[in-house]
Design a protein that fits this description.
By secondary structure, this protein is of the alpha+beta class. The protein has one domain. The chain contains three helices and three strands; from the N terminus they run H-E-H-E-E-H. A three-stranded mixed sheet has the order 1-3-2. The longest helix has 13 residues. The relative contact order is 0.27.
Length: 75
């Protein structure tokens, strides 16, 4: 289960990771990079957000969903 947005952990994020479901494997790296930037710019709106504890802080992990793509397509 994904975690809710957490301002405390968000302030300590040192890495961003994006998990792409298999149905988007045919997208170009440039398209994926553009969408990742838009999604990570507003992590509080991500449908599937998780934080992984690291030695130096947290890694933010967002799994891309259709809802995320709908949200950033109007941006």
């Amino acid at each position: 289960m994904a975690n809710a947005f957490d301002p405390y952990r968000e302030a300590l994020v040192v890495e961003n990771h994006t998990v792409w479901p298999a149905e988007y494997e045919d997208w170009s790296p440039a398209d994926k990079a553009r969408v990742e930037g838009l999604i990570h710019a507003h992590p509080q709106e991500a449908a599937d957000l998780d934080y992984l504890r690291q030695h130096t802080g947290f890694a933010r992990v967002i799994t891309v969903t259709a809802a995320d793509l709908d949200r950033v397509s109007v941006a």
